[in-house]
Design a protein that fits this description.
The complex is a heterodimer. Chain A is α+β, with helices and mostly antiparallel strands. Chain A is about 35% helix and about 25% strand. Chain A has two domains: about 5-165, Uridine Diphospho-n-acetylenolpyruvylglucosamine Reductase, domain 3 (2-Layer Sandwich); about 170-265, CO dehydrogenase flavoprotein, C-terminal domain (Enolase-like, domain 1, 2-Layer Sandwich). In chain A, a hairpin with a 2-residue loop joins strand 10 and strand 11 (about 195-200). Classes of the chains: A alpha+beta, B alpha+beta. The interface of A and B includes residues 41, 176, 243 and 254 of A.
Chain lengths: ~260, ~775
């Protein structure tokens, strides 16, 4: 780790102002990616601006047909919140499978989505539900937010304040965890939304993406059997010592099948 | 005395006496030591696997804020810290002497693995030292690398050390080549397998650390560092540095996991001695987990081609092995000894195979040096034999339990002299197997397999019946000192050092049992250098046989020594004094004196000692697995262990040891695997993001049972059990997976049996590839 200044922001305005003045400052939410990066001396920020405890970033509520969750909400809170479990149980289920208990008690929704790790769980729900990312500056549609591996539409100094998940008729998430890291080797979020079936895949590729062939097949019939003949094209998927592209394509298909079976 | 009832009174399930202190955070681990004026070290490590060092520029680092000193290979060479101890002192094939490479504690002129210590910066703070280490500029000239353990011995492989031609440190043979040849010639069936016991990272919970102090007046060093025994560490540091034993004090209290990895005098510890002396300040270093992956000793890394010859009825006629032990870029002191010695000791396993032969070669590669890892080649030889036996059973269509029974050394044959000269003291392999078969309900397996099939799952059952050597030890004897306090409480001192095994409880139970006082009244102190005790470190499952037995001997001696003292106080003849429960009583009157009262009058202490030969814990493990052909994921649905570890002192501790060791075997079979890039020698699994440790929740119920015989080496009947879970689980789990996959036509697979690998194997088999 390199030396840095730690500051706790009291308000959102406070945090945004500090970040605006210092390009090298970084917001600290759960720190589940940032802290290991610092420990490995791969980042050298001037300041860490702790945004935990800022009231604008907290809260879970259902309003106007959407589940709205503050960015600093920890995974464990999402997993166990009665509001989430009643309104969008698939999201609570997803949150309960992130990392391990330590991670779930520190890591936050906003932190995960802003980081856009290609193997993170939340991006699949954000894209699968066509959620709105509300920042201190604007609202960004999920379709416009994720720009590939660790890249998002967020501008410097822009912070996620909350995320609004339109409530689907039904949704389900199935995940195959990476044997070492616990991230998704393949995670598939399927939602029956007002605008149709959406299937979002995380972990298998360089970033979260929609599997349109699966959406079409499931539109005809919401069943595991509907996916049987499909093969996810492996060309653009990840390949490393933990699995070939073909294996990841298979895992994505199996997870999609399991999520579909849960919805059938 | 009926030894089997020895420990019922003392509390066979006594909770561990050390746990409250540890869970309250009151333990003192290596990084918890601090000294006034201490400085902090950081290491610059090689970022490439094999290269000449053309130049090192330390000017910027030296001038950096807080920096007190920067040290390189030149300093290591000028200190003479270039030749680590090697215990590979015996002769090999045709009298071959081991070719021992030197290793300067800071790399000199050449680096040979990623992570090797190249330079050390010492500064006022750890952060300053880390910052300055990044300012060091090293100019390298890359050399070709060799990381494949088999290819490294072939012509044309990159060469690591000038004095190790062909990268081969040592070659030995054991057994009777001619008898084996003859047996194979007449065999009805021969089973051949390539068996790789892959390289793993021990990853103890506590990272390595040291705090080294130097006293200029006396020229003496004190090293605070994690150990398995202070004497083992001192011996190695003394050999590396030439500093005599009496100028070296090793201090350790709590040690957070060991597995063999703690037994080594690492370069960082020795390098810190250079700085402590030069600066005349204590120097502290605490490893990060990332450094640990690339500098803690690795384990296993044995690569075996094995053949078993059988008669028509399944009788084992002969076994032949060709064994390569990959030791990495340099040799740790005992690293190559484990794979050369332990497999030979138990070469026949639990079987009466009459003819055995093996060739062993010690190879070097551009990788982290390898050393003992829980079992230290005992699991490897057991895995080799048990894979051969199970494959033979399948190929010859004989029930695997029945094939084992036909070849077991029978109960009445003990003590049994093996073809390689070991004396197995006592065992009941048939009894162990039968009990395990019953508990695992092997008879009901076919029905369970059918149910799994209906759910689309592949089910398999595998067993492993194994034996391993324990006891013995490299130090001349084990000593335990008992000091009696005036309150009658006893302080015991041992060299054998717990890394989590629970010595404080087990030893207290043994002493308490012998003295008839509660275990809670005995406190164990480990690693107290001032007591000057001789003894083995904790390793090789031998502690209970050595130091544990000596606890009993010392307690008996205490009664013997104290009886005449009590008689004198009571005014009677020693023959008229009876001891019970901490008190001496006159047989002639009601007069009594307690141990504490005696100690209050005059210091009362005894040192017990003992020396013990080898004994042989053994057992049968049965695993049942369900494999999802869609994903390749294996779920171990049942795991049964039946072990003969001799007398059980504390069931909870025995079960805990079994849980941990089986989990390590599980880790190795299903995930753990150190992977190097073949072309560059870069470590590809250098963090928990890529290296799969077994996780809580993966491992469900393990059913643990015992079928013990009374060991003949220790008067307590103990045999040891710290490693048997590793020794048995590698084979049982692999056999279970292969049992599930064999019907599909899947050929024998190498560990780790990852979901990815199994899915590929299942998919290929289904395609008829």
């Amino acid at each position: 780790m390199f030396a840095f200044q730690y500051r706790k922001a009291k308000t959102l305005k406070d945090a945004v102002e500090i970040l605006a003045k210092d390009d090298e400052a970084k917001p600290l939410s759960g720190g589940m990616t940032l802290i290991p990066t610092l420990k490995a001396r791969l980042a050298n920020p001037t300041q860490l601006i702790d945004i935990n405890g800022i009231s604008e970033l907290s809260g879970i509520e259902v309003k106007d047909g959407a589940l709205i969750i503050g960015a600093a909400t920890k995974h464990h809170e999402v997993a166990t919140s009665k509001v989430v479990r009643d309104a969008l149980p698939a999201l609570a289920d997803l949150a309960s499978h992130i990392g391990d208990p330590q991670v779930r008690n520190r890591g936050t929704l906003g932190g995960s989505v802003a980081n856009n790790d290609p193997a993170a769980d939340y991006p699949s729900a954000v894209l699968g539900l066509n959620a709105k990312i509300i920042t201190n500056k604007r609202e960004i549609a999920a379709e416009d937010f994720f720009l590939g591996m660790f890249a998002t539409a967020l501008e410097p100094g822009e912070l996620i304040v909350r995320i609004a998940f339109p409530l689907p008729k039904k949704a389900a998430y199935a995940k195959f965890p990476h044997p070492a890291s616990g991230y998704a080797m393949a995670g598939v979020f399927i939602a029956q939304t007002a605008s149709g079936i959406r299937v979002a895949v995380t972990g298998a590729g360089p970033g979260v993406f929609r599997w349109t062939e699966a959406e079409q097949a499931l539109t005809k019939s919401m069943s595991a059997a509907a996916l049987e003949k499909l093969t996810l094209a492996a060309d653009d998927l990840n390949e490393d010592i933990h699995g070939t592209r073909e294996y990841r394509a298979q895992l994505a298909k199996v997870m999609a099948t399991r999520a579909a079976a849960a919805l059938a | 005395m009926d030894h089997h009832h020895l420990f019922d009174v003392g509390g066979a399930h006594l909770s561990r006496l050390e746990d409250l202190r540890l869970i309250k955070g009151e333990g003192c681990y290596a990084a918890d030591w601090n000294l006034p004026r201490q400085a902090h070290a950081a290491f610059l490590r090689a970022d490439r696997a094999h290269a000449k060092i053309l130049s090192i520029n330390i000017d910027a680092a030296r001038k950096a804020k807080g920096v007190l000193g920067v040290y390189t290979g030149a300093d290591a060479v000028s200190a003479g810290y270039v030749k680590p101890l090697s215990m590979l002192t015996f002769a090999g094939k045709d009298g071959m002497k081991a070719r021992l490479p030197n290793r300067a504690v800071l790399a000199h002129e050449r680096v040979r693995f990623v992570g090797e210590t190249v330079a050390m910066v010492v500064a006022e703070t750890a952060l300053q030292a880390q910052d300055a280490a990044e300012l060091i500029e090293v100019e390298y000239e890359d050399l070709p690398v060799t990381v494949d353990p088999r290819a490294t011995l072939e012509a044309g492989a990159a060469q690591l050390h000038d004095n190790v031609p062909g990268n081969m440190v040592f070659e030995q043979e054991a057994g009777d080549a001619a008898a084996v040849e003859a047996a194979f010639a007449k065999a009805a069936h021969v089973t051949r397998l390539k068996l790789d016991c892959t390289r793993v990272a021990p990853n103890p919970m506590e990272p390595r650390a040291c705090l080294v102090a130097y006293d200029a007046g006396s020229g003496a060093y004190t090293l605070h560092t994690p150990v398995q025994g202070i004497n083992m560490m001192r011996m190695q540091i003394a050999a590396y540095t030439g500093v005599p034993d009496d100028k070296l004090t090793i201090r350790a209290k709590e040690v957070g996991g060991g597995f063999g990895q703690r037994s080594i005098a690492y370069t960082e510890y020795v390098a810190a001695m250079i700085a402590a002396k030069a600066l005349n300040r204590p120097v502290k270093w605490v490893s990060t987990r990332s450094e640990g992956f690339q500098s803690d000793s690795h384990g296993r890394a044995n690569y075996i081609d094995a053949e078993l010859a059988l008669d028509r009825d399944g009788t084992f006629l002969a076994m032949r092995l060709d064994w390569i032990a990959d030791l990495g870029a340099y040799l740790h002191p005992a690293g190559p000894v484990s794979p050369m010695r332990n497999p030979v000791t138990c070469l026949n396993g639990v079987y009466k195979t009459p003819a055995l032969f093996g060739r062993w070669r010690v190879a070097l590669t551009n990788t982290v040096p390898v050393s003992a890892y829980r079992g230290a080649a005992r699991p490897e030889i057991a895995f080799t034999i048990e894979r051969l036996v199970d494959e033979s059973a399948a190929q010859m269509n004989i029930d695997p339990a029945e094939l084992r029974r036909r070849n077991f050394i029978p109960k009445e044959a003990f003590p049994y002299k093996t073809p390689t000269g070991s004396i197995y003291d006592i065992a009941d392999f048939h009894g162990v197997l039968d009990k395990a078969l019953k508990i695992a309900d092997v008879a009901g397996f076919d029905k369970r397999r059918t149910i799994s099939e209906k759910r689309g799952m592949l089910r398999g059952l595998g067993m492993s019946t194994v034996i391993e050597n324990s006891g013995a030890g490299m130090f001349p004897k084990d000593e335990v000192l008992l000091e009696v306090g005036s309150d009658g409480n006893i302080t015991a001192f041992s060299i054998s050092h717990s890394q989590g095994q629970g010595h404080e409880t087990t030893f207290a139970q043994i002493i308490g049992d012998a003295l008839g006082i509660p275990a809670e009244r005995i406190q164990l102190q480990q690693g107290i250098a001032e007591k000057g005790l001789i003894g083995n470190h904790t390793g090789g499952s031998r502690t209970i046989v050595g130091a544990g037995t000596v606890c009993h001997i010392a307690a008996k001696k205490l009664i013997e020594v104290a009886t005449p003292l009590a008689a004198e106080q009571l005014g009677v003849e020693p023959s008229q004094v009876a001891y019970a429960k901490g008190e001496f009583q006159s047989k002639e009157s009601s007069k009594k004196i307690t141990l504490g009262e005696l100690a209050a009058k005059k210091p009362l202490s005894v040192t017990g000692e003992g020396k013990f030969g080898s004994t042989y814990p053994n057992g049968c493990h049965i695993a049942e697995v369900e494999i999802d052909p869609q994903t390749g994921v294996t779920d171990v649905v049942s795991y049964v262990t039946v072990d003969d570890c001799g007398t059980v002192i504390n069931h909870a501790i025995v079960e805990g040891q079994m849980h941990g060791a089986v989990a390590q075997g599980w880790g190795q079979i299903f995930g753990e695997n150190i992977v190097y890039d073949t072309d560059t020698g870069q470590l590809l699994t250098g963090s928990f993001m890529d290296y799969s440790m077994p996780k809580a929740g993966w491992i469900k119920d393990i059913t643990i049972a015992e079928h013990t015989t009374f060991g003949t080496i220790s008067p307590l009947g103990v045999k040891g059990m710290g490693e048997s879970g590793c020794t048995a689980s590698l084979g049982a789990l692999t056999n279970a997976v292969m049992n599930a996959l064999r019907p599909l036509g899947v050929p024998p697979l190498d560990m780790p049996l990852t979901a990815h690998k199994l899915w590929q194997a299942i998919t290929s088999a289904k395609k008829g590839l």
